[in-house]
Amino acid sequence: MRFTSEQRLDDGVLEREFTLGEIPGTLWTPASASASAPVPLILLGHPGGVRKMHSRLVARARHAAADGFATATIELPGGGERPRFAAAEQARADLQRALQAGEPVSEEIVDRLVLPLVEKAVPEWQTTLDALLALPEIGGPVGYSGGVISIGTRLAVVEPRISAAVLFAGSFVPRIMFEEARRVTIPLLVLLQWDDEGNDRRMALDLFDAFGSKEKTLHANMGGHTGVPQFEGDAAGRFFTRHLS
What DSSP state is assigned to residue 163? Predict the structure, then answer.
């Protein structure tokens, strides 16, 4: 892991951009983090385009830092300035065409768009987690917060270092992920926007039902994709304080 930039935000949070091989990312640590007092870590998931989403990611990182957590994110394969994947670009175009035409989005389109991303992104998240936990100021346990929900689901199944997850139900889900969801056992908080224009509500509810966790909570709010109420950030903070502190 090579840090490429560093700045101290006005609330004392240290923001550092890094590269790990071909993986670019950002790490935020609260002022309290040190080798003698390492802090828990939350991985911030998103749909891609770190620079475009920077202000929202920083807001989430500051909120977590106030609760005593470090946070980190990476650019997804094919996202931001990373090389594009022709197959994924075609699947995305097919998805947009179906939505604009008011047509159902086929399972075949969803599979072509989401499954290759999950296969590429999850190992990169695990490699990044290896490097982050090697830093003296970062300790366990680890949480995952955000989307793409299929990435979060796969990580919850294959990565034993993740102890709890807040999942954003705002993306299409391949049917095969329902089988993986049944293998998830960690505590979950799932956030659903009831009127999300780019999400299949019924599929999101069915996925929540499929999760095998004994502790799972669904928060559904009225509004579109970007209308998640601010108070849900407080709910996520309390959730991680219970399970990571």
Answer: E
